[in-house]
Amino acid sequence: MFRRTVILCSFLALTGCSTTLPPWPAADLRDPNCVQLYQEMDQAVANADVRNAAGEPIDGFPYLRVNRFLADMASRLETSEDGDLWLQQTSQFDLQLRFLEYRTLPPSSDFKQKWDHEGIFQDHLTLCTGLLAGTDRNQPDFWGQMVSRSRVPDDYIGAYRVPLYPLTVLPVAVLTERARETFTDWFATPWEQQANQGTLIRYTPDYRPSLNRQQRQAILSRSANNRLEWPLPSREDTLLLLASLAPELYVDQTAPYDKIVSPVWQEEVLEFDNRNTPVYTYLSHTWWQGRPLLQLNYSFWYSAREGDNAPWIEKGPLDGMTIRLTLLPDGRIGLIDLMNSCGCYHAAFPGPQMKVKPREEGLKPGLFSPIPLPKGAEDGFLRLRINSGWHQITQISDQSHASDQTRPYQLRPYEELEALPVQNGYRSLFRPDGVARGSERIEYLLLFSLGVPDVGSMRQRGNHPISLIGRDQFDDPDFLERYFIPESVPEKN
Q1: Per-residue pLDDT tens for 99-130?
Q2: Burial class (CB in 10 A: 0-12, 13-18, 19+), 483
Q3: How many CB atoms lie within 10 A of CB 415?
Q4: pTM value?
């Protein structure tokens, strides 16, 4: 019965039979004090304009939020045991984001003054999450509601594409192809033959535990010990995986804008601290052959995109890069893909277990995959070479290389970007629409008709459109299934 309900509601959600969902009648059974707490907090967050865009609330269920993977998984649940695990993750995700929203509320907020002790607030909110979930879960239509209401809209605005989209698609397709030709030439040039414009700085993690493939496989196996085979590593295992597989970055530095920095607020002004070298991390998931895989994300930032290499329309304050490692159940890295943190210049480097599908006909560029993953990088020996100013990857390697200087970097939780210290409180780097504050580009004046609001600006996790033609998201849970097919590779001992 559980599975039939989920399938029916999945069909209704996909066909769009109703764009506005009615209130759930069973909501009247909820604890009124907890309902009031959520209502007051949501109003305070809206008034202060501090909503965290990393997750999407489930309409009518204020204690739950989803990202694209969680929303997609809702339609795949087959038993109540599966549903309980999903419910646990969606409620924990909401708590994580609400704690950050609470932290970024201004001290003058009535809600913040009412709940002036953060620890007491967190305990009370956690208790209410359990009470509301316990009440709702026992209602007969609960799981059907979860499927039909778990939606995350993409980051495109269709109205922007009327009427100029057909006129801009062709020149954008041509320019995309030219940029890819340039990138392909870079990757065809051996590492040691690429000239430095300035000082080549090697950034390496300040802590790298030794973790072989079998040990990673053991972590992934125990973290996926559930019916869904969903890798959910403990905090300790998460830190081990992130630290042991953290990449080395070789950055060609010609000016201060090439230094990896920490964004900081000085009152209302975004500044950059180059005394600290943080790389911000978070986990995500994707589907491959019907099974969820764990992904490790590494995000680092520069004060600006500038210099002779960068196209003039892309220049401006704040720049960033996100590198993502997709782990196979056996502990190997199956895919490395990356993008500038505006969602631009997405590129993928598959291991031998994945083969890129042929490109479909039409103007839409296919997946950009200039070279396969170097063999040693399957086990985490990943080095990336980055050019000055434009901050593009020009080569990827599994070998150590010479550098002029070496600097350590520190792994930090991505949530720190979403609640940076400011005088008398905290403020997120990102606006409520997921766009990084102070990172605006002139690009949007020229490319708005492609449907991406604030195109060229840096963006928050979960808010990265990666195509100007079509509608593709960096965190699309079906990304692997869409662009790759399995490649049979004999296992070597």
Answers
A1: 999 999 999 999 999 999 999 999 999 999 99
A2: buried
A3: 19
A4: 0.94
